[in-house]
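Exercise (ungraded).
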Amino acid sequence: MNPFSSDTRLRDMIRAIRACKTAAEERGVVRKECAAIRASIDANDQHYRHRNMSKLMFIHMLGYPTHFGQMECLKLISSPGFPEKRIGYLGLMLLVDERQEVLMLVTNSLKQDLNHTNQYIVGLALCALGNICSAEMARDLAPEVERLLQFRDPNIRKKAAICSLRIIKKVPDLAENFVNPATALLREKHHGVLITGVQLCTELCKISSEALEHIRKKCTEGLVRTLKDLANSPYSPEYDIAGITDPFLHIKLLRLLRALGEGDADASDSMNDILAQVASKTESNKVAGNAILYECVQTIMSIEDNGGLRVLAINILGRFLSNRDNNIRYVALNMLMKAVSADTQAVQRHRATILECVKDSDASIRKRALELVYILVNEANVKPLTKELVDYLEVSDQDFREDLTTKICSIVSKFSHEKIWYIDQMLKLLSKAGNFLKDEVWHALIVVISNASNLHGYTVRALYKAFQTSTEEETFVRVAMWCLGEYGDLLINNVEMLDIEDPITVTESDAVDVVEHALKRHSSDLTTKEMALVALLKLSSRFPSCTERIREIIIQYKGNLVLELQQRSIEFNSIIAKHQNISSTLVERMPVLDEATFNARRAGSLPDAVSTPTGPSVNLPNGAVKSVAPLLDLLDLSADDTPAPSSSGGDFLNDLIGVDPSVVSQQPGAIHTSKNSTDVLLDLLSIGSPSAPIESLPVQRNSSTIDILSPSTSKREPISSLDDLSSVSLSSRAPSNTGAASMTDLLDGFASGPPASENNGLVYPPITAFESSSLRLTFNLSKQPGSPQTTNVQATFMNLSSNAYTDFVFQAAVPKFLQLLLDPASGNTLPANGKGSITQNLKVTNSQHGKKSLVMRIRITYKINGEDKLEEGQITNFPRDL
Amino acid sequence: MIRFILLQNRQGKTRLAKYYVPLEDSEKHKVEYEVHRLVVNRDPKYTNFVEFRTHKIIYRRYAGLFFSLCVDITDNELAYLECIHLFVEILDHFFSNVCELDLVFNFHKVYLILDEFILAGELQETSKKAIIERMGELEKLE
């Protein structure tokens, strides 16, 4: 026999473990015990097998490995006595799960024990089978279990019923064998057998539609009667819980009735009365009663419609909602959520109570209630609901705020027809919890503000007022900066006053104070500071009296470590100081942002592009990026469509880089430049927009234009003047990427511009790449000087059919020797009959240039009236030398 | 269906762990740790239901012991709450005034009681009397 401790009793081992002061000490004791048990196992010590197993189970529960005991379980199970078998099966259930191979070995013992003459041993085997049955075991032992469903002792019948349940869960094919014995169980009087039989039938209904049909036909009436008897049964101490006889059986019966009534009017009809009785008569002052009511409500809502019952059900939920017990309120909210689709009106009646639940201290109740409120919002109640929620936002938990803010925001956006209300709510939301909101939310707000031309004054005044009290939220400050820059003049004169407003007195210098504050607050991030600087520039011309002060503020940033701020500071300073005459035109109010384009782009932009560009770090070569960052989008939106305000547009640019305008005007093509340079200026003023286009311009012009732009009139070679240009302070990024290659890079984004055709000799005639009865795709091909391998392709799609296409997506694939870069398309809807087009730029790099020509496979998907269409093709008609 | 039943004390020591779905040992330990974390610090005023992964935990505290059931999302929470209470009553009756130590030293009996009450994650018997009587019969066979 083992020398040290295999003969310690279980009780002593537990004591020893409990006496341990540290985890290390405990590990020591357990290690010693495990060693002793192993030794005892190795010695095949029959006497202590029982005790060893008990100890192993305890050790297992503490979380130590006990796999070495698994075979011992099997030995115990196969021993003849009840106590050994009992501990063996217990060990089996704890130490082994259905995925382990040891289980294969146990099937035979189980089979023998299921056929054992001792009904207690049969009980043990059924219990083990129920808890760890695998699919193979289910197949092997199903006949035994099926037979045991008719066993004389109810204790065996109920265990067999649950084993059957487990078996059909593992192997649904076996379900049909169990239908008849299972329905027989429903006629039992013994509660244990009845409740297990009901559960088995519920599972059968779930698995097999034939079983469902059968049970529905044969048993519905019987079940209704059983439930009625149960509900009317007198006090029975054995099953009584809080004055109700066996609430568990109630619940399981209701659940089975639900399965039977769902989708069947007759069955539903036959259970109406008893449901009405349960719903109206059950005591609701205890958990047990409420559990039944809750189940009953679920059944009523699931079975075929009966208006009266549903009203009753919703009223029960309403009562639940005002219960003091959080658990009850929680289930009520859960249930209302499901009921809302069936009967919104009935749920609406409890709106006020639900709203109170949003303010509950329990997070799970709040969450449920908020979701429910969100569903309940409609045109009629959106205003008071939003007000309540926004008010609550102020006092809500920090953890809950994010959820709450997002939900309010989507409510407000969903019902945004009334602009003034939308703006009001969004401003409130931003000033209270703006940091929880995504960038696109405030981008969208700015688009709306820009479009609501009669509310500009109102908005800027509201922002000014709100700014006095709250500057915590970054996004709020950004919106304030944008609006102050654009509409600052409306602020001081109380222009476009609405009736509901109180007039305020703001001086020009007050407005500048606000911007200065935003610029200098520590928490402002780069984007906000950039926006503040732009706002200052704009205000400098709107408020002539403050110009000097603004210049002083701006000039403080001329040595800023952040390049973008430094650059803006110096540029803006020079605009204010040297070009007063043009600055008012320069900083004109932005044209109205196009909502449709914004929404389309927002929908189309990739999710990962949602973050705000943070100044210089976004040093993206134009066009090489897959999706344009939305902020850039937002403020540039209409830049492309802006008609040149005047021919002096060209002068701005030249002014800006310090060239004598007169020289320009003498040059042919100068007028032509004006449109583009205006765009460039808008670009320049937009936040975070790399000033790349400025550099790219000259390259698109002929060399003569380049000459003009260089500070000294052209006495040098064109190339050197290019270098010259890039060394002008303006193009801060240029020095890092000089040379022709970088210039071509910058050109990419401009492939669509008219000057593209001027690229001498590098433009090819357009080809029709693909044409079907419904769609034409043309490619405009061009190359950049200096990189013969790369071809820029501008794809133009034309709809030849009479239906508009939506969700238009173009995809292309190329062989390995080619490299393909796809820019975002100009849109995703294509109007009918060729009335519009989508363009998309591609860049193809041919690594085998001169040896192989381009080839491309394309795939185009779109929808016509919601129906998916797909077109595919191969393009081989590229010019040979690409 | 009940996925697992845990009985833990305030320190997170597991006093009973019954799994009706197969889990690796390491996963079981993780589950026990997470469930303990979830329930132990919850305000008693809050609901007795906590979402746990794709299921929910229904728990009830008796003195320093937490009884937690992990059930399907669609299950009746209130019924399981009552179920825990019935189990505690059975234990209380069986050990006559149960305390944590009873459960520690007689853990195997607790498992046996549970096996008479719940099988394969489903309710098997709802009568306290029937279970206690059955336990008495089984004890006699030992």
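Further reading is listed at the end of the chapter. For now, observe: Chain B touches chain A through 49 residues (CB under 8 Å). Chain B has one domain: 2-141.
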